[in-house]
UniProtKB/TrEMBL annotation:
This is Putative GH43/DUF377 family glycosyl hydrolase. Residues 128-266 form the Glycosyl hydrolase family 32 N-terminal domain. Gene3D superfamilies: Glycosyl hydrolase domain, family 43. The keyword 4Fe-4S does not apply.
Length: 348
């Protein structure tokens, strides 16, 4: 029997009960990162248009600002594989689809079925407006691609892409392959998140072990020139927690930010119960993190848009509030509903 990642993420029964962090005194280091107020509806769902790249579902948000507007890149699934689209907004709630920015190439052995843009180089300060950063006068994005048809089949690779206008992208060569890494990443590479710190590019990514059931953890590769990459010896930076922890199976989809001289990593965990939730880890450096003992975005009650999963974070600060986008999943695999949702730090 074949079990894919979506089936694994939907196999749990019963919600994990977490007590949250016990806070000492009045100091609450997690306060700047919390977004307890969920918007009650999906802000983007599958288009339902036959033949469209995002007909079946949307996934993996990435948010930023440019040209006086907000933009959200996302992955669309059409029943065959992933492709990447973009939408725009003036208020972070109402989004207009602008089309595909990275499409699969049937003639290419790497992207013939899938290509998922996961991040574009941007400001990483938590309370910045998340403006993009150019390199050599161009925007640079990180993508991953699974080589076979279906949902994440085969050992994926990571690469970069370049653009002058955000809508048209030139795909560059592969920069990381699963077979070149350690045992924890040999099964395939997932979401890459690109950050520039000083003169060094940091590429955070999660990956999976071989075999089934697999586990996912988060590591790091670094580069001075975006061409030659070295895996950081501290990897995996975020490891799976013990049985009963919210990240027992997966510790995945990193988003790294800076705030008041410190670092933070949003990521999602998959627990033994099969439910996925967004989590957080504090960093005293961009290569060393300590997990917070509190769930940032938990699954919702039965019947809600995120009753199964509330995972895959993306954040932006606007008008005095932090917005936390995530992939919300309801229903039962394989007929679940997968779309994008948002929570923020102040009430709606």
């Amino acid at each position: 029997m074949t079990i894919d990642r979506r089936a694994l993420l939907g196999s749990g029964a019963g919600a994990l009960l977490l007590s949250g962090a016990a806070r000492a005194g009045t100091r609450d280091p997690l306060a700047p990162y919390r977004t307890p107020y969920k918007y009650p509806k999906l802000i983007l769902g599958g288009s339902g248009i036959p033949g469209s790249f995002d007909e079946k579902a949307v996934d993996c948000p990435f948010v930023f600002s440019a040209n006086g507007k907000f933009y959200l890149t996302y992955v669309g699934f059409d029943g065959t594989g992933y492709q990447t689209g973009i939408c725009e907004s003036t208020n972070l709630i109402d989004w207009t689809r602008k089309g595909v920015i990275l499409a699969r190439d049937p003639s290419d052995p790497i992207t013939r079925f899938n290509i998922a843009c996961a991040s574009i180089l941007r400001e990483n300060e938590l309370q910045s407006p998340a403006r993009l950063i150019k390199v050599g006068g161009r925007y640079v994005a990180a993508w991953h691609a699974y080589p076979n048809a279906g949902y994440e089949e085969g050992a994926a690779v990571i690469g970069l892409a370049w653009s002058d206008d955000l809508l048209h992208w030139e795909r560059g060569p592969v920069i990381l392959r699963a077979e070149d890494g350690a045992e924890w990443e040999r099964g395939g590479l997932y979401k890459p998140y690109l950050v520039k710190i000083g003169d060094t590019f940091h590429l955070y990514y999660n990956a999976k072990t071989t075999g089934r059931p697999w586990k996912e953890q988060t590591g790091l590769a670094i580069s001075k020139d975006l061409r030659s990459w070295t895996r950081h010896p501290a990897s995996p930076l975020i490891r799976n927690g013990p049985e009963g922890a919210p990240d027992f199976r997966f510790a995945s989809d990193p988003v790294v930010v800076s705030h008041r001289g410190q670092w933070g990593m949003f990521y999602f965990g998959l627990a033994k119960d099969g439910y996925a939730r967004d989590l957080f880890a504090f960093g005293d450096s961009p290569t060393r993190f300590t997990k917070a003992d509190e769930v940032l975005i938990d699954v919702g009650p039965p019947g809600s848009i995120d009753e199964k999963f509330a995972h895959k974070p993306a954040v932006i600060h606007h008008d005095g509030a932090l917005y936390h986008f995530y992939c919300a999943v309801s229903g039962k695999w394989p007929n679940d509903v997968r779309g994008l949702a948002v929570a923020r730090s102040k009430p709606w």
